[in-house]
């Protein structure tokens, strides 16, 4: 496998994948997916980018931005409720 021969993804043998794992992971990080085949040429695994997972800091920042936006926007066409009306059953 050359440096660019599998940059577009596709099928790769388990032997080649093991020999070039670091390079494959760099491609996967860039969005490329691979099907890894066994010695018989049949697909045995899929190597693809993991779904994006925001960090705790990113979640907190997004939450704070949402709260700030909600606090800065007045409620439109909402009646003024009393506490008792909100908690009536």
Helix proportion of residues, in percent? 40-55%
Oligomer: single chain
Sheet-strand content, in percent, reads 5-15%
Overall pLDDT = 88
- The whole-angstrom Rg is 25 Å
Number of helices: 4
Strand order, main sheet: write it out.
Answer: 1-2-3
Order of helices and strands: EHHEEHH
State the shape. elongated
Task: Give the termini distance in whole angstroms.
Answer: 69 Å
Low-pLDDT sequence parts? none
Question: For the report, how would you describe the main beta sheet?
Answer: 3 strands, mixed
Number of strands: 3
**Secondary-structure content class:** alpha+beta
Key descriptive features of the protein:
4 helices, 3-stranded mixed β-sheet, alpha+beta, 3 strands, 89 residues
Describe this structure in words.
The chain is α+β, with helices and mostly antiparallel strands and 89 residues long. It has a domain at 10-47. Helices cover 40% and strands 15% of the residues. It contains 4 helices and 3 strands. The protein has helices at residues 14-19, 21-29, 56-72, 83-86, and strands at 10-13, 34-37, 43-47. It has a 3-stranded mixed sheet. Strand 2 and strand 3 (43-47) form a beta hairpin. It starts with 9 loop residues before the first strand and ends with a helix. The model has no long low-confidence stretch (mean pLDDT 88).
Layout of strands and helices, then pairs:
Elements: E1 10-13, H1 14-19, H2 21-29, E2 34-37, E3 43-47, H3 56-72, H4 83-86
Summarize the structure.
The chain has a domain at 10-47. The protein contains four helices and three strands. It has helices at 14-19, 21-29, 56-72, 83-86, and strands at residues 10-13, 34-37, 43-47.
């Amino acid at each position: 496998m050359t440096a660019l021969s599998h940059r577009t993804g596709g099928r790769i043998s388990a032997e080649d994948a093991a020999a070039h794992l670091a390079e494959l992971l760099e491609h996967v990080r860039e969005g490329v997916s691979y099907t890894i085949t066994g010695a018989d040429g049949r697909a045995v695994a899929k190597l693809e980018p993991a779904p994006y997972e925001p960090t705790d800091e990113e979640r907190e920042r997004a939450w704070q931005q949402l709260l700030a936006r909600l606090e800065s926007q007045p409620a439109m066409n909402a009646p003024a409720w009393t506490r008792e009306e909100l908690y009536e059953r």
